[in-house]
Amino acid sequence: MELLATYLRRPSVLLPVLGLLTFVVYSGSLSFEFVWDDWPQIVNSPIIRSWSNLPRAFTSDLWYHVARHQVYYRPLFVAWSMLNYALFGLRPWGWHLGAVLLHVGAVMAVFGWRGDWDSNTGRRRWRRWSSRCIQFTLSP
Known about the structure:
7 helices
């Protein structure tokens, strides 16, 4: 157990372990179907079906194609949806894979943002930061 703890103190070991842990925890979503707001935002959305609509993503709201009272300006989400549609069409597993990989990337970015460690308090800060990264990994 002490050998494992020694290895996990190394960023070059802990970072891939966090990435793998994140992927394993959320890989169950790959078998899920589209749900609730996926239908108007993805399945029935005309804007995501062509890259020529990219400028429109930055000038209209997310719900422009349905009668809604809310206005949601989400241009990056629409661009992300266009990319997913280009890669996976309307196959839910691909959309879920994209979301899982995005979360893996976010976990790795948060971990890499830890800052420098000094020799006096480095170990204690390392443990605290690692545990916070694991909490972020496991939070949806």
